[in-house]
Design brief:
The radius of gyration is 20 Å and the shape is elongated. The chain has 10 helices and no strands. It folds into 2 domains: 41 residues, Orthogonal Bundle (Arc Repressor Mutant, subunit A), CATH 1.10.10.60; 134 residues, Orthogonal Bundle (Tetracycline Repressor, domain 2). The N terminus is likely disordered.
């Protein structure tokens, strides 16, 4: 029995390959402006080859957003994020978030562009708010422990920290002269200096 080959281009793709291409196109054109026909053309397959992996474009979006969010939440569950002084746990989460951004840049970029235009986007935004609460609670705990200056609201501090982290999607390019760890070092050095309470 001969294997049936996809009529247009290469036979088959893994779900991971499909996601990578879909996210690239979503970021270039916008999710709403991207059709399944365009994704199929970019992959060099038929639409039915895509539907072999996912039932809809919406499911591609959900999987992509979950990939970024799952990686971010995984950082908050690492041992260094759950034990020790809050300021050290906060630094760990910030450093880990920079590493996630570098490793999953297109996925994080897509996540940051979500505006709540569908149930999938609303769910992603709700998870982002949960992540923000974790960071805010760490800032508040660090303030209570005397390690963070008390004159700035913890929620504001959290937004400023992660506003800085999120802005990296605009200019950081993996594989360049600056590694993710060096980038995390620079971000922590500049932000935590102003964050720490003065003795």
């Amino acid at each position: 029995m001969t294997q049936t080959r996809v009529r247009r281009g290469r036979p088959g793709h893994s779900l991971d390959t499909l996601l990578v291409v879909a996210v690239a196109v979503f970021n270039e054109r916008g999710y709403d402006a991207t059709s399944m026909e365009e994704l199929a053309a970019r992959l060099g397959v038929t639409k039915s080859a895509i539907y072999h992996h996912v039932p809809s474009k919406v499911e591609l979006l959900r999987l992509a957003l979950d990939r970024a969010l799952d990686a971010l939440f995984a950082v908050t569950e690492e041992p260094a994020a759950v034990t020790g002084r809050a300021i050290d746990r906060l630094e760990h989460v910030v450093r880990g978030s920079v590493r996630v951004l570098a490793a999953e840049l297109p996925f994080v970029t897509l996540l940051l562009r979500v505006r709540g235009n569908s149930a999938v986007e609303e769910a992603a935004l709700a998870r982002r708010r949960d992540f923000d609460r974790i960071v805010t609670d760490l800032v508040r705990s660090a303030e209570e422990e005397g390690d963070v200056r008390p004159d700035v609201d913890p929620a504001v501090t959290s937004r400023l920290l992660f506003g800085t982290v999120n802005s990296l999607t605009e200019w950081f390019r993996p594989g360049g002269a600056l590694s993710a760890d060096a980038l995390a070092d620079a971000l922590v050095a500049t932000t935590f200096e102003g964050l720490r309470a003065r003795p």
